[in-house]
Fold:
Amino acid sequence: MSTNTSSLYPNTIHFDQSYIDFRFNLSNFSVPLAILPWIYMIPSFIVICRIFNIYLKSSPRKPEYDVNRHVFLAISLSQFACFSSFFFDYFMTRLPATGIFTSFCASIAPNHWLKVVLFLALYTNYLSLAFPILMPLIRLVVVLFPKSHKKLNSKLIRIIVPLICIYPICFTFYLLPALGVCKSYEYPYPFGAIWIYYTNSAFGLRNSYFHLGSIFFWMSISIVINAILLFKVIKAKALIIGGQSYKAEFSITVTTLAIIVFYVLNAVFVLFYIFAYGTNSYTSYTIIFRPFGNDMQTCIVSWVFYVTHPVFKRATIYPASTMEVVSSVVN
Structure:
């Protein structure tokens, strides 16, 4: 019975006796790799919550919190999406890689519950690619429409946020008939390290190519928008007098550039996975570093914004963003 059942799901560990007999070992090098992320992700999550708290406190009725709240909402949504992606990816890849679930997973049949974990990891990953576009887009609206940007950005957010939440479905629909399975990690992971994947997807579609296309799409849009913004800011830089305004704008610019860097890193990791995973090449080690590269987007972007933005340095919150100053100059 086990042999017949196992043959239905090739390249998985289900009903493979060697995996059923596997015992979890703390000496597995995947164990510290699974513990390490929480050391820096928990403080980063607190920072994200502090950024979001500024958005919640800011209001036209509270002049002491006169910040560009759309910018704070945009970066909050982006970073919450990144943290969610980390959280679900952790249960899809890093925790199973320790071997703690290997025996259990090998003793059960592929099922839709495993697919739910996979779907949530992929869904939030697509969100983490799309939401970063909000901040440069909001800044562009501020520059182009200085007198009506608040009203326009409010409408923009009401339209774009639901669309972004829906768009990952277009890249994960093929999972509907699929089943979640447990697969063994290949080189350089040791025996017993597994991850959650899928089988029997609609039309035999794979996520890798959808993911890669999505990365290049959002990265291209981000580069175009930021190129326009950079031109505008450089043109008006000499006329910006307010020190705090300039620091606020510098913070937002550096944060946006950091996001572009991580689009590139994401693309590189996907390409290595497509062409090198499972080989004995040194490039196959990127499968170990890939989650940490994604973690950098959650941590570095949050901390860069938090450390460089003047709103977090003093009790008094300074006026919105220099984009309002810039827009009045360049328009």
